[in-house]
Write a structure and sequence with these properties.
- The protein is 30% helix and 29% strand.
- It folds into two domains: 46 residues, no CATH class; 106 residues.
- It has a five-stranded antiparallel beta sheet with strand order 4-3-2-1-5.
- It is built from five helices and seven strands.
- By secondary structure, it is of the alpha+beta class.
- Helix 1 runs antiparallel to helix 2.
């Protein structure tokens, strides 16, 4: 079954999910932990249920304008999403995007997408999406080609706390 280290890894992983500010993902992780605690050998149960582990809540800003689960559903279903977005300068834009992936960093969650307004890849901080509407319109994911192209973009962290590919982070990019 699991070793003591593996049980600790599970317990820490579930607790780290609390930092993501994604209630449905947190509930799912807690459910997995409860189910695992029932099936692991008795000596390992305390490692999962009452692990002597503390994981801070982190500094991620709260997500109020969108349920991250809706964005994950849109990714899985290859459905377009209409979003209202507020960039780091406070500028508001309306966009239709093709969501490709979620990137979870310690202090921010980013939605990687093809932006129809910019006709290019863009990264959107989930905490800056003020509204999102899942559209009926679907897009062709082309057997993962969009995801592969997005993943191939160089990633970096900028000074102001946004996360994104080097080529996509600019004042005019509104990401």
């Amino acid at each position: 079954m699991f070793t003591s280290e593996e049980a600790d890894a599970i317990a820490i992983g579930v607790r780290l999910l609390r930092r993501l500010r994604d209630a449905r993902l947190q509930q799912a992780a807690e459910s997995v932990l409860a189910k695992l605690a029932i099936v692991v050998p008795e000596p390992l149960q305390p490692h999962l249920v009452s692990a002597p582990i503390y994981v801070s809540d982190g500094d991620a800003p709260p997500v109020t304008g969108v349920d991250p689960a809706v964005l994950r559903d849109a990714i899985h279903e290859a459905r377009k999403v209409a979003i209202a977005y507020i960039d780091e300068r406070g500028l508001h834009t309306q966009r239709t995007i093709r969501p490709i992936a979620m990137a979870y960093y310690v202090d921010v969650t980013v939605l990687g997408a093809w932006c129809e307004l910019r006709n290019d890849f863009r990264n959107f901080r989930v905490d800056r999406i003020s509204n999102a509407e899942l559209l009926d319109e679907r897009f062709i994911a082309e057997s993962g080609r969009l995801l592969a192209e997005w993943l191939a973009l160089p990633k970096r962290r900028s000074d102001e706390g946004t996360v994104g590919p080097k080529e996509l982070v600019s004042p005019a990019a509104a990401i």
